[in-house]
TrEMBL record, chains A, B:
Organism: Theobroma cacao (Cacao)
Localisation per UniProt entry: Cell membrane
Superkingdom to which the source organism belongs: Eukaryota
Protein name: CASP-like protein
Metal-binding as UniProt keyword: no
Membrane-traversing stretches: 13-37, 44-67, 87-107, 128-150
Family: Belongs to the Casparian strip membrane proteins (CASP) family.
Keyword Membrane: yes
Keywords carried by this UniProt record: Cell membrane, Membrane, Transmembrane, Transmembrane helix
Entry membrane topology: Multi-pass membrane protein
Domain Casparian strip membrane protein: 6-137
Signal peptide positions (record): none
Assembly, per entry: Homodimer and heterodimers.
GO CC, alphabetical: plasma membrane
Amino acid sequence: MALFGSPGKLSGLLLRVGQCSFAAASIGVMVSAPGFFNSTAFCYLIASMGLQVLWSFGLACLDLHALRSKRNLQNPILVSLFVVGDWVTAILSLAAACSSAGVTVLYSRDLGYCRSPHIPCSRFQASIFLAFISWFLLAISSHVTFWLLAAV
Amino acid sequence: MALFGSPGKLSGLLLRVGQCSFAAASIGVMVSAPGFFNSTAFCYLIASMGLQVLWSFGLACLDLHALRSKRNLQNPILVSLFVVGDWVTAILSLAAACSSAGVTVLYSRDLGYCRSPHIPCSRFQASIFLAFISWFLLAISSHVTFWLLAAV
C-alpha cells in the first residue's frame, strides 16, 4: 500500500526527520533556559524528547536505507514493531508536553512567577510548543502504521 | 467482527460504563478537594472528565440499545463517528490528566506545598489516578474502533 507517511516512503522519511528535528529543538531551547531543573516536569520533557530523537532518528535511517536499496519494509512483523514503538513514544511525548504545559500555565497564570525576570517563561513556552509539534508529527506516523497493521 | 470491546457488544458496554464511572469519580474527588480552583490544570481536568462522562454515557446507552434490539452498529459511517469522538476525547483526557499530574508533582516535590495541611495533595493524587484509569479504558475502546474502521 502507498499510504502517505508509511515506512519506506519519502513522506515517511520527511515525517521522521521533522519529528527528530523538532524534538531536538525542544531539548535545545529547554536546556538553554536557566533554572529548568527546578521542575521535575521539565526534566521529564527533556528525557522524553531525547527518547523521541533516538527513535525517530533510527527510523529515519531505516527509511533512508529502504529508499536507497528499494526494499519493502511492510511485512507484518516489522510493522507491528513500528506500531508498538510509535505508540509508546507518542504517549510518553504527549504526557511530557502536557505536564510541562500544566506547570507553565501554573507559573504564568496561577502563581504569577512569570512577572519576575528570573524565570524564563517564554523559553519554557517555546520548548513546549516545539514538543507539541513533534508529538503531532509522531501521532500522524503512528496512526498510519496502525492503519497499515490493521490492513496488512 | 466480534472483537473484544467493539460497539454493540457486552464487553464494549462494560468498557463504556467503566470509563463513565471512573471519570465521574475523578470529578467527585477533585470537587471535594478545597482549593482546586487555584490551579487552571485542575479546572481543565474537571472539564475534560465532564466531556468524557457525557461521551461515554451516550455510547453506553447506544450499546445497551443495540444489545437489547440486537442491532448491528458496525457500519462504516457510525464507526468513523465513534473513532473521531473517541480519539478527541482520549487525547483531551490524557492531556488533562498529565497536566494535573505535572502540577501535583510540582506541588509535592519541587515547591514542597504538600507539607502544609491546607493543600489536599492526596485528594489531587487520587483524582488524577482515577482520571488515568478512565483514560486507559477509553484508549482500549478507541484502539478497538480504529482497528474496526481499518478492517471494515
